[in-house]
Amino acid sequence: QFRKFYEGYFRDVPEAQTFDWETWLHKPGMLPHQKPDFDRSLAKESEKLASEWIAYDKNDSIETDAPDKTPATDISNWTTLSITCFLDELLIHTSTRDKPLNVSTIQSMKRTYG
Question: Is the Cβ–Cβ distance between 86 and 50 less than 8 Å?
Fold first, then answer.
């Protein structure tokens, strides 16, 4: 009933005649042209720090005599969600490479963050 009204009311508008009713009414998920634009600034900071620790971990396993170049990001003012995002990223990185963090890296994290 609504569809008949819509098509009749907008019969002179070409875009209205090509409206994809099937997708809008019956297909799951969001429409391709309506992807939300989320603010990822906090997540990016967490992801960047996790990547820095993964890089540190890789270098630490190669160069055992390398000077201490731990990532210097202060997370004392981070929210619980930002810290959780950081830990999630570490978990994702370590699970995709099938290798846990080196013990020395974890000890460096403990010295850095307490």
Answer: yes
N-to-C CA span, the chain: 65
Diameter of the chain measured on Cα atoms: 77
Identify the residue whose tokens are 């009933």.
1
Query: DSSP of 2-45, one letter per residue?
Result: HHHHHHHHTTT-HHHHT--HHHHHHS-S--GGG------HHHHH
Beta-carbon contacts of 28 under 8 Å, excluding residues fewer than 6 positions away, are none
Kindly report whether the global pTM for this prediction surpasses the value 0.70: no
Question: In tens digits, what is the pLDDT along the chain, a chain of 114 residues?
Answer: 888 898 899 989 988 888 888 888 888 877 666 777 788 888 999 999 999 999 999 886 555 545 567 888 899 999 999 999 999 999 999 998 888 999 999 999 998 998
- The span from the CA of 75 to the CA of 83, in Å, is 8
* DSSP one-letter code for 34: G
